[in-house]
Amino acid sequence: ARIDMCVSKDIKLPIDSSALITSSGVVGSKFVNISPGAGTKLTSYLT
User: Fold this and answer.
1) What DSSP letter does each residue of 14-28 carry, written as one string?
2) Which residues, including other chains, have CB under 8 Å from residue 6's CB and lie 6 or more apart?
3) I want to staple 15 with a disulfide (CB 3.0 to 4.6 A). Which of 6, 10, 33, 43 is the partner?
C-alpha cells in the first residue's frame, strides 16, 4: 500500500526514518508507525 501524508514542519526526522502501516489487531484500525532513524541529517519528508 502507499499513502501520502503531511508531517508538520516543526517535526524533525532523520533522513533514514521509516514509516510502516500497521494494525492494532485482527479487526483493529490501521495506523502509520514512524520509526526515527539514527542519522544526523534531517529531512522534512519520508519516502
Assistant:
1) ETT-EEEEEESSSSP
2) none
3) 43
